Amino acid sequence: MTSKDSQAPQSLQMPPFHDVMGSATAGIISRILTHPLDTAKARLQATNSSIGAVNNNKISFRGPIDAIVQTYRKEGIRALYGGFGAVIIGGTPGTVLYLTGYAFFRDSITSLVSTWKRSSDVTNNSKVSRGQEFQVHFSSGILAEAFACIIYVPVDVVKERMQVQQRINAEIKNNHHYQGSWDALRSIARTEGLRGIYKGYWATLASFGPFSALYFVFYERFKAFSRERVQNTLAYDAPQTLTDKIDDGNLPFLHLVACSAGAGALASWLTSPLDMAKLRLQVQRGRIAAMPTPGRYQYKGMLDCLRNVYINEGGLRGLFRGAGARVMHVVPATAVTMTSYEKCRTFYANAFG
After folding, report:
1. Residues 171, 291 contacting (CB under 8 angstroms)
2. C-alpha span between 317 and 56 (Å, rounded)
3. Count of CB atoms within 10 A of residue 306's CB?
4. What is the pLDDT of residues 148-193, one digit of tens each?
5. What is the pLDDT of residues 40-88, one digit of tens each?
6. Distance of alpha carbon 26 from alpha carbon 260, whole angstroms
7. CB–CB of 289/192 below 8 Å?
8. What does the alpha-carbon distance between residue 164 and residue 195 come to, in Å, rounded to a whole number?
């Protein structure tokens, strides 16, 4: 990454409208294509816990594809898209807040670091170092997630309750079914209150915060490498076309796909145990709320859940149950989302000036 890139990230050149439209379009496209994989991930992670038992018989899947096939055969296409309404209606604004929030925090923190370096360096050098870039991208990812979770948490709660509701109902012999995302949200608010909807905020942030932080660290690093490769190629093959910078949206399509997919694979696998614990805590609250009499909580919190799974479900193998499904969901989701985001915001910038 050049000094100029570090001081003025590309998104600073884009008016907010283009970022908003680009992130909204990218979020919708991604959700439509990858929601069944997210359902498979949720059901795999619920397996072997109390929420995955039906009449005391363990239900298990051989993998994400098997989870999709079994769910489709037994419950139909509607089950694969359980919670989809909440994801589209609530998740799209969440995606906008997430991506535009990250760009805002990244650019603001980078500007502050550059100003601080310029004022403290006798050579007036404001270039952000590699280590400082890591800190900027890591902290920006967590901050963006913290703000986006204001929308994401209720959406996530509704989505995952819908995705596993038949298992919960079978276990506690409850015939109530949510009729849709809006019905689920109203039912949860009525039985658990607003506090119940946001009770998983910190668990969600503890799961997605590290993912977002690591994702953007990897993604920005991969993009920087890609820009260098493209600039070097242009300098060798067509020096007359070389400019002082290459906008992210003008990177080759396959480069963007590789950058976003690679970052998504690494970040999602590393943080899979946190996502598994977050899911179990969320669904546990739904199971307890649906019981005619208050039940006993199996997990007292995220750390207790991780410890319980490690001890009783095969150590690291238990902690990473569903990791493959999560990677299979996150890789196409992030590849589609981020590639669409970079290309769409450039398209809107060119289309609307």
Report:
1. no
2. 22
3. 18
4. 999 888 877 777 677 666 555 444 445 556 777 778 888 888 888 8
5. 877 776 665 444 444 444 557 777 788 888 888 888 888 888 878 777 8
6. 13
7. yes
8. 21
